[in-house]
Each structure stands twice: as structure tokens, then as C-alpha cells.
Amino acid sequence: MRTVPVVAVLGIALLAASTGGVSQVEPPDEGTVLGSPSLSVAAQDNSFEWGDRRDLAVTIANAGDLVRGGPERFEDRVTTARSVEVSVATDRLPPALAGRLQVESGRVLLGELPEGGARTVNLSVGVSQSIPPGTYQLPVRISYEYTSFVRYGPNEPQYNDADREVVERVTIVVVDRPRLSLSAVQSTDVEPGTTGTFRFTVANTGTRVARDVGLTLATDGTAVGFGAESIRRSTVGVFVGDLEPGESATVTVTASAAEATAPGTYLVETTARYTTGGGFQRVQTDLRSGLRVVDPNATTLDERLPGDRPWVDGGRSVTTLETNVANRRLLSIPPGSPLSERAIGRATGPSTSPRLLTPPSRLPTHGRPYFVVDGR
Question: What pLDDT, in 10s, does the model give residues 84-118?
Fold first, then answer.
């Protein structure tokens, strides 16, 4: 009978107990870790109405893409995006947005984005009324640095760093809604110290009905306003009523100008208030037009009457023009003309007295001085 040494059996048992019965494999001393960041984008609060100009919150997440593992610090290195920059890819906009979507933010620096991380940036955009309602894919450009692989061993690890640029897309929605516009602005010329009319057309160019439309017209100051001269005020309200999509209405209000008002076109700011089909109250403030004040004694080259006659003096052509005011003539003289007041008198009659119109802001100068000659 063979005897087995107890010491040997006991040694084997102790070795098995110390290893838990499973063989342990030490990580290799050298190898290559492969991977890259994997970025995605998503947008919050992505519904816009015409005229909206605000920030679009875009979240960038990094899921990471580990191809071959190794030491944890090297795995983190290949799946982390560094120096991340985000912007709207204006050169990749779809045709319906190109030239219509206003992008007001440039590149936004995000910094480092490790695997499993997410960061949010704000991209400022404006939606013009020329963009049809609908759903659009907004291209977002993301550029970053990363390490494509790490080769490690007994010596210093080797890092293969690279740059990458990707274009991802987020969804934005331009919602249906009414949209008002002013067109065909017409008015009788308002003279200083008199009353005229201010007429324009308001149209619903949107895709939904605008109910109970009310307009508030306002001028800056009291020189030009609404109502007769004696009761002129800087604001006036007009009720239009409902406007279906494509429907328009003509609005006429009384306008007047103070006695000392300088000729010109004065800004009229119009604010529209209406109710949408869903019962929401809306205010639109981007409606502008102009109220024209004219000088009753002014004339332009477009107001020539029969009787215009050319006249030549010293080889230079001069034209006297009848005006739309009795006993008044307009005389244009080419630049550098040596004509004297006496020569002007010969052209229009010996009893005339020429005077230079200063400044010639109400006449088309075309680089020439103009003289108004009284024909008394």
C-alpha cells in the first residue's frame, strides 16, 4: 500500500484556496487601445413662430465607441472629445432655410466631453416670415480633437491624436399661425398746417385666421400725427376684424402736420393685436410705413408742364422748366457754368430775380445746383 505525503496534499489545498479555484491572468505588459468619441445632438423647445429671434438649446452627448480595450486611463483617452466647438452649419442649410434663417451666433466653445457626458449650448437664430410652416432639419457642425489609438508597452505610450469635424442635424418646427403685413401704402400729400389721408392695406399672409384684428398706429412726436390739425395726436387705433389667410382690408385714417413741419417721409410704427384660432392672444410689432409731408411750393423734374424750352449760352445747355406753381420757373445749370444773374435774366425775362434754393433737398439735384426764378 502506497502512502501519499500529507504535506503535499495540504500544499495543493492551500494553493487552491488562495486562488479561489480560478486561474488569474495578469494584463499584458503591452498592447493597443482603439476607439473614438461618438457624438449625437438633440434640441429642446424647438418650435418657432415667424419673427422669433431667440436661443435654440442644443444638447451634445458622447456615447463613446471603444473598439479594443486596455488600461482604463487609455480607454478614457480614446473615447473623450476635447476642445469641442459647436455652430450652425450655414453652408449646409436646406433650400427652404438658406438665406431665410438668420444665424446670430458663431462658434460656441464647449470644451471637453468624456464618454457618457452631455453638455448644452445655445445657438441664436431668427425665423423670418419667408420660411413656410413645416418641419426642418437644422445642420449643426461639431469639431473636436481626440486620440484614435494608444500604443503602450514598457516604454512611454504613443498617442495618435487627430481632429474631426462632423455635421449632425436637429429638428426645428416653424408652426402655422396668422401673419399680417402692410402693403400698397398710399396717402394724399399732407402739407404743413393741413389735413390729408393716410391709406394702406393690411393682409393676412399667414396660414391661419387672425380674429379681431386691431391696429395701433404711432408717430414719433407731435409734428406729424393723426386727426385734424386742431386735434392732432401721435397715436390712433383702428379695428379691422377677422382676416382669413390671403384676405386683406384697406384702412384709411385722417393725418395732419404742424405748420412748421419740414417736408419728408415720417415713420409710422404699427402694432397689431389679434387672436389665433386656438384662442391665443398675439402681438405683432414689425409693421412699418411712412407718412409723407410735402412743400406746396416745391417742384421736381417729373412735374414739367408744356412750355419747357432749352437755352444755350457759351456752349452750355440750360433748361428752364415750368413748375406746378403759378409764376414760378425752375432753372437747372450744369456744374461749372459761367452764367451770371444777368444771363439768367435773359433766359427768363428781364424782370426776374433769381434765388438759389437752399438746401436743394426737395429736388433731384443730379449733381447740379438749382435756381428758382420768380416770374413776376
Answer: 999 999 999 999 899 889 998 899 999 999 999 99
| pLDDT mean over 38-56 | 89
Domain range summary for the chain, segments of one domain joined by +: 30-174, 180-293, 301-374
180-293 under CATH 2.70.98.10, yes or no: no
> What is the number of alpha carbons within 13 Å of residue 22 lying toward its C-beta?
4
CA-to-CA distance for 243 and 272, rounded, in angstroms?
A: 12
In 3D, which of 187, 169, 43 has the Cα closest to residue 97? 169
Alpha helices (H) along 168-234 = none
CATH 2.60.40.10 is right for the domain spanning 30-174: yes
Judge whether residue 371 has pLDDT over 50: no
Beta strands (DSSP E) in 261-322 are 264-275, 281-293, 309-313, 316-322
Give the separation between CA 243 and CA 204, rounded to whole angstroms.
6
> For residue range 275-320, what is the model confidence (pLDDT) as tens digits?
987 778 888 888 888 888 887 665 443 333 334 444 433 444 444 4
Where helices occur in the chain by DSSP H, the ranges are: 6-19, 72-79, 341-348
The angle formed by the CA atoms of residues 84, 47 and 170, to the nearest 5 degrees, is 35
CA 345 to CA 61: how far, in whole Å? 84
